[in-house]
Amino acid sequence: MSHWKKIVPASFVWLFLALPGLAAVPTLTQQARDNLVETERFLVVRTVKEIPEAVQAQMANLLRQASLQLANPGQQLQKADNDDPMVPQRRLLFAGISPDYCVVVYEQYAYSAKGIVGTVLVYSLTGNTAKLVGGGVTRSDIGDLAQLKTAVKKGEIRPLARGYLP
Q1: What domain range is 98 assigned to?
Q2: pLDDT tens-digit profile of 1-31?
Q3: 43 found inside a domain
Q4: Against a cut of 0.70, is the pTM above it?
Q5: How far apart are CA 94 and CA 65, in angstroms?
Q6: H/E element holding 118?
Q7: How large is the C-alpha radius of gyration of the chain?
Q8: 5, part of any domain
């Protein structure tokens, strides 16, 4: 009996760590928050095709998709507008692109919240590569860059929970 007590907990820990999609999205560092709010100058884009390809590829990987399935603003959103599996589960609000960063802000229906939540993902850009440096969720209305900066300043972007698929 004591043999199983030693094996079972270790097995569950291994299984938990090995499941795909359970890697936590990093919390934005203070430096990244300061850069977003004070330093960086962003070009705002409002269509998915304007998001850098490297960021699209990294987001698709994070969301476990072959290619990024993200509706453009104004297009239907699954569960909020209908239950059609051909309709994306996430909808772009806007993206901000600077020489060093790409910030993607999108919304999705959250069953647990029984409503729409916003997600913010921040990628560093180096040449043709993108790396996720942080992100979080919010219930705040973030429709533009000024509202995003205000939400960051007020601490309204909460870290994503481990295992939460943004």
Answers
A1: 22-153
A2: 444 444 444 433 333 333 334 356 888 888 8
A3: yes
A4: yes
A5: 20
A6: strand 115-126
A7: 18
A8: no
